[in-house]
UniProtKB/TrEMBL annotation:
This is Polyphosphate kinase. Its cofactor is Mg(2+). Its EC number is 2.7.4.1. The gene is ppk1. Mg(2+) binds at residues 372, 402. ATP binds at residues 50, 465, 561, 589. Keywords: ATP-binding, Kinase, Magnesium, Metal-binding, Nucleotide-binding, Phosphoprotein, Transferase. InterPro entries: PP_kinase, PP_kinase_C_1, PP_kinase_middle, PP_kinase_middle_dom_sf, PPK_C_dom2, PPK_N_dom, PPK_N_dom_sf. Belongs to the polyphosphate kinase 1 (PPK1) family. The keyword Coiled coil does not apply. The keyword Ubl conjugation does not apply. An intermediate of this reaction is the autophosphorylated ppk in which a phosphate is covalently linked to a histidine residue through a N-P bond. Residues 12-118 form the Polyphosphate kinase N-terminal domain.
Length: 685
């Protein structure tokens, strides 16, 4: 494009540090008194789970890159030592805040609701007797103990709780695995009246140390947890020859290497030094945590008397008037495009559609891409029924969906055994699109039916992930989607798409063209405006185009739930860019893009973030919204989110996560609640 300064000097945020800033927004929800107390406890669980994954993937990658030869990493600008130092400082700050929220706010608030979490020092004589009996009858048979002889990091299961103590008789240390998987993390104690008392499983073990190690002399036990790395997914971040050079520089690397030994605050230095030596860990591998680890277990913490004030008010999935009234979803979609919004509306409509297809004698074929497959679901059952009924079923299974690899491959084999045509991952590319295409024989010929979503085909995540789902028979979309599946089946190498935006083919170039079009409008003194909603914004080329658009006078509003490498409010770079992030009871997961186009607005939705991996290294599908009614509905929802002044944070230059201030003249808008009300009063037609 003409007029671009080839000497542009733009600045960007560090991806890893800004991801931690995102997780801090989750921590803010745990501290926010707007949220009911048990929901605040769940936000601590989410924060903890997120941090575990951060160590498993991102910290692991940085630590491995430390071992890469400088001559290889220097051209890439990799500075893992400095980055790790900054990250650990931020992690320490957040962990300290985490402890204060739990101990100084959550526990006292629970107590006000007559829910008490006790530790060993709080036990009465009667409670000790009860817990000793419980230990004998329910816990003892599930324990696995071992000493230090021959232990390695492989001895410890990744992310599991263990306890360690110093045995004066053995003059060494002893270990016991905390059997949360078979016993549960929390034990309710016997109480009278409307008072509820719980204790942690590890505290029951501390109380019964003499029974766990009957021939030992151990004063107390301490909690530890070993985190191990996941696969090193370098292809997500680096390209071509650099990937191979990095792998070669790392030589032989084993998956499952330790990334963090988290130990209980107050553990004697003598004990954790012995563990460090035994497991061959360095100082950087050890991290002091609070008294409790694996806060993700609080996802299952009970509401003992089912007090509705302790949890979010229920948002039962809304019924869609048109779907409810129709006897056939095929006939419904044939009349006009339909759009559903999860979790506000019922995911079962999609399951109903596939179940209808399984029985429909007019269905010729079903094609679907599955990224994260639920272990059991109506959707997979319907696909199996379709096979039993002799339908042609083609399934693309993404075998490299992080942490779901084994489950996805297992399902792939099941589908193959039942007669489906199953295709797996492409080399060096993932299939991240959420698409379904069915061919149906009708009176006027064979018609294609398409589904394009922003979220996975997963009924469980659809209960708390905010996503959109388009049902259509529009041939402009269905013909392109048929081509996508031909690509997945290796039938087409050089496709041509007229309507859909598909990575790694035309998606990046089409987005760039639309941004350039807004720049030209601004330069010609015409209205120019861009709204983009996504999970993460990282791709430097796309960010540069947004910077150029800002400099040209294009007004840009971004909604970014996760990390964002674009730096707003920089003179000569991003003065016209505003960024907010909404973190609330549901996880914002949809990707939506709106371009003003001098009044001829274009609106898109799909599976792709503006990250390099999504634009260049994954099969992603983004569709324009062609139906006028759906266009208006989706734009209304986008505008509600842009107006949030309750759960929206400003993503500024310093990543301070300040909440948007509510002017006295403005109504309070909490977008997820307002969207629920909007859809409740406008139930589709």
């Amino acid at each position: 494009m003409e007029g671009i300064d080839q000497q542009e000097k733009f600045i960007y945020k560090d991806r890893e540090l800004d991801w931690l800033r995102f997780n801090e927004r989750v921590l803010q929800e745990a501290a926010d008194h707007i949220n009911p107390i048990l929901e605040r406890l769940k936000f601590l669980a989410i924060f903890s789970s997120n941090m575990d994954e951060f160590f498993k993937v991102r910290i692991s990658k940085l630590r491995q890159l430390k071992k890469v030869k400088k001559k290889v990493r220097k051209p890439l600008g990799l500075r893992p030592n400095k980055t790790l130092k900054i990250l650990f400082e931020e992690i320490d700050r957040q962990q300290e805040l985490f402890g204060k929220i739990f101990n100084d706010e959550i526990l006292p608030e629970l107590a006000k609701s007559n829910i008490h979490i006790l530790q060993v020092s709080n036990y009465t004589k009667e409670q000790k007797a009860e817990l000793k009996d419980y230990f004998e009858s329910h816990i003892l048979d599930h324990l696995k103990t071992f000493n230090s002889d021959g232990i390695t990091t492989e001895t410890f299961e990744e992310g599991q709780l263990y306890m360690v103590g110093y045995d004066q008789n053995l003059n060494g240390i002893r270990f016991v695995k905390v059997p949360t998987d078979s016993v549960g993390r929390f034990k309710e104690l016997t109480t009278e009246g409307n008072c509820f008392k719980y204790t942690f499983l590890e505290d029951i073990l501390k109380l019964n140390t003499d029974r766990i190690f009957p021939n030992s002399k151990i004063e107390t036990l301490w909690n530890i947890k070993l985190s191990k790395d996941a696969e090193l997914y370098l292809d997500d971040d680096y390209e071509g020859e650099w990937v191979q050079q990095i792998y070669d520089s790392l030589a032989k690397r084993q998956v499952g290497q330790p990334t963090r030994l988290l130990y209980e605050k107050g553990m004697p230095e003598e004990i954790y030094n012995k563990i460090k030596v035994l497991l061959g860990l360095g100082k950087i591998d050890l991290m002091e945590g609070g008294k409790r680890h694996n806060f993700s277990d609080f996802f299952s913490f009970p509401n003992p008397n089912e007090n509705p004030s302790l949890n979010f008010e229920p948002f039962p999935p809304l019924k869609h008037k048109a779907f409810e009234a129709s006897g056939s979803i095929f006939e419904l979609v044939k009349k006009k495009d339909r759009l559903l919004h999860f979790p506000y509306q019922d995911f079962s409509y999609l399951e109903d559609w596939i179940a209808e297809a399984a029985k429909d004698q007019h269905i010729i074929s079903i094609h679907i891409s599955l990224y994260r497959i639920a272990k059991e679901s109506r959707l997979t059952s319907a696909l199996l029924e379709a096979l039993e009924n002799g339908k042609e079923v083609t399934i693309f299974v993404e075998a490299k969906a992080r942490f779901d690899e084994e489950n996805n491959i297992t399902w792939g084999k099941i589908f193959e055994e039942k007669g489906a045509h199953v295709y797996y991952s492409f080399p060096n590319i993932k299939v991240h699109s959420k698409i379904l295409y069915m061919r149906r024989r009708e009176d006027d010929g064979v018609r294609g039916y398409a589904y394009i979503g922003t979220g996975n085909f997963n009924a469980m995540t659809a209960k708390f992930y905010c996503d959109h789902a388009l049902f259509t028979v529009n041939p402009k979309i269905t013909k392109d989607l048929e081509q996508v599946f031909r690509i997945l089946k290796r039938e087409v190498l050089l496709p041509k798409f007229k309507t859909l935006l598909i990575s790694p083919y035309n998606l990046r170039s089409r987005f760039e063209e639309m941004i350039q079009r807004e720049i030209q409008h601004a330069q010609n003194d015409k209205p120019a405006f861009i709204v983009a909603k996504m999970n993460s914004l990282e791709d430097q080329t796309m960010i540069d185009w947004l910077y150029r658009a800002s400099n040209a006078g294009v007004r840009i509003k971004l909604l970014v739930r996760g990390f964002c490498c674009l730096v707003p409010n920089v003179k000569g770079q991003s003065e016209n860019i505003e960024i907010i992030s909404v973190v609330d009871r549901f996880l914002e997961h949809a990707r939506v893009f709106l371009f003003h186009n001098n009044g001829e607005e274009e609106l898109f939705m799909g599976s792709a973030d503006w990250m390099t991996r999504n634009l260049d290294k994954r099969i992603e599908v983004v569709t324009p919204i062609l139906d006028e009614d759906i266009f208006r509905e989706l734009k209304d929802i986008l505008e509600i989110q842009l107006s949030d002044n309750t759960k929206a944070r400003i993503l500024d230059r310093e990543s301070n996560n300040d909440y948007l201030e509510i002017p006295a003249v403005k109504d309070k808008i909490r977008s997820q609640y307002d969207i629920y009300e909007y859809l409740g009063s406008n139930q589709g037609s």
